[in-house]
Amino acid sequence: MDEGDDTSVKLADFAFAKKVTKENALVTLCGTAQYVAPEILDQSSPGYDQRCDNWSLGVFAFVLLGGYPPFEGVSGDLSVEIKNADYNFHDMYWKDISSSAKNMIRSLLVVDAKKRYTAAEALSCPWMATEEEQLVLRDLSMAQDSIKGKMEPKTKVKMAVQAIIARNKFMSITGVKVVPSRQSIDSSILEEDDSFEDNYNWGEQIGIGTFSVVHEVTNKESGELFAAKKVTRKDLHPSDAVALHDEISALQKLAGCDHIVKLYDVYDEADYTIMAMECMGGGDLIDRIAEKCHYTEYDAKEVSRKLIMAVSHCHKHKIANRNLKPESLLLKAGSDTDVKISDFGYAKTVTFPNSLRTQCGTEGYVAPEILEHRPSYDVACDMWSVGVVIYIVLGGYRPFRGEGDEVMKQIRYGEYKFHKRYWSHVSKEAKSLIQQMLTVDPQQRITAEDALKSDWVKAEQSVLETTQLAGNMEDLKNLRSAKSKLRGAVKTVIATKKLQSLKGFRAHQDF
Fold first, then answer.
1. How far is Cα 434 from Cα 510, in angstroms, rounded to an integer?
2. Residues 384, 368: contact at Cβ < 8 Å?
3. Is 35 exposed, middle or buried (0-12, 13-18, 19+ CB in 10 A)?
4. If residue 232 lies in a helix (H) or strand (E), which one and from where to where?
5. CATH homologous superfamily, domain 38-144
6. CA–centroid distance for 141 within its chain
7. Using CA atoms, how far apart are residues 497 and 462, in angstroms rounded to an integer?
């Protein structure tokens, strides 16, 4: 764009340009996730040609007018949304946009490339011919604010790297060679030849997931200890590849919060994405609580306050975590209350109210609106999970217990109790806050911002430190120590199958 001119733009990137010698002559799977045309993703198609660019033009026009991309994977699979042209002109952003503009976008976002507008047809459509006087009166400030929120605060280099990362998620699905790249939160320099092992030494394994392992690693230059999450991309389903991109994006946006684990570097290598993250060293929250002999309501309150602060920060950035649970809460070495959220594997940006639709989460912690598939929900789902976590750190057990369908029913109807044996000595302010969080109707549920203003969260140390909760944790300690690895594995398989019986539920199970 020329200096001082807001409308004169020029194409600057031709790195994937290819000459089309005949119809459908192109076969390479490439492009940026949210802008790629359906015929590129559809491996059953005979190929594609220059008409793929017209689809990307439609996405670009949608973003310029609406302020958010038409395809974001809110249904759980970005590639399916694109291949089905599954998008909406949401009234909140589009009610003042002319029908001729929306008709042009519809004509570009046509799955069948043969029926899609050409560039020449787009240039001659009614919207392009509209007089300036009719358009300058239309206010796009809401779209502008939405775009600003998504773009802040990134350098051009960082945005370029994100495009490479997003592109690689698609290329890695079919084994196309991936160009290595490096992205650093603290650096605006792109070092494409740097590999992870050029900068870090591997240490012991400290965690494992379905597609990833976590190791302690040491930075060769500084000697500082980090946690490296190594994700194997070659086996990822397209929806999981998009989730990985969303996880990285969320951690970048939330970097300014002291109660969220920091992401420092991202390396995209041939078969792996490696994320160098802050190493906490204090273990997960429940293990630490179970080990403590002296544990007060004030300790529980401080842990809860920091968790709510982290969730409030997420929600201010319109990010829903969607899988909050004690195992995702890590403590800094040497601290009993300095807790941080470590897992953003299901995090998603809420582009407009109630834009989330994927059924996902962990049994016992998932909000009722996700189980009900209403069909949409919002960031309020996290506050339900926070309520479950606070119930555990105070009472020593989960509010919703049982097997499979029994737990689901309890959650749907908000059926739980404060059993006298564990709760008679806990303050009424704490129980009141939990009740406001475990409210079935998300519209009536307390927000993170309001929770931080609650009487319990603001209570002084002298008021709460006399209430001992160590006795409440005995059952929790015995339960965790009694489980053998085999029994845990069998229960996980059973529970996961029950969860997966819900259509589209991306199941996690923890005990």
1. 21
2. yes
3. buried
4. strand 225-232
5. Transferase(Phosphotransferase) domain 1 (1.10.510.10)
6. 26
7. 47
Answer yes or no: CATH 1.10.510.10 is held by domain 282-508: yes
458: helix, coil or strand? helix
CA 366 from chain center: how many Å? 15
| pLDDT digits 0-9 by tens, 127-174 | 887 766 566 555 565 555 655 555 444 444 444 444 444 444 444 333
Distance CA 15, CA 163 (A): 12
Cβ pair 117, 107 in contact under 8 A:
yes
pLDDT tens column, 94-138: 888 999 999 999 999 999 999 999 999 999 899 887 766 566 555
Cα dihedral across residues 231, 33, 322, 509: positive or negative: negative
At residue 484 the predicted structure's pLDDT band, cuts being 50, 70 and 90, is: very low
User: Which 8-state DSSP code applies to residue 356?
Assistant: B
Label each residue of 242-263 as H, E or C: HHHHHHHHHHHHCCCCCCECCE
d(CA 245, CA 164): 11
The Cα angle at residue 450 between residues 446 and 455, in degrees rounded to 5: 100
Nearest alpha carbon to residue 447 among 337, 316, 322: 316
- 156-278 is classed CATH 3.30.200.20: yes
